[in-house]
Sequence to fold (110 residues):
Amino acid sequence: MTKEKSELLQGTLDLLILKALQLESMHGFGLAQKLRAMSKDVFQVEMGSLYPALCRLEAQGWIKGEWGISDANRKARYYSLTAAGRKQLQAETAQWELLSSTINAMLKAT
Fold:
């Protein structure tokens, strides 16, 4: 069986970024790789979608970015989850669980 590449549902990228940053702080390229690994190569987040999302989350105070040096000895912006981001992650996770369980129940209806 081959894995098909899929697009993220609108509004889920923020949730997945928050979840990944809950696990560890990382720079944008590392975050894209982490999201791909977490999805077992089903989702590939393009930098053109990732960086605007990071800017939006940082503006909302859910993540913070700080400059550092990458493993490749290059300047990189590292992102981490804030206390407000942890709270938002909990709220969005609860909302996602309700939404997905409802849709699953509807799809199983006979």
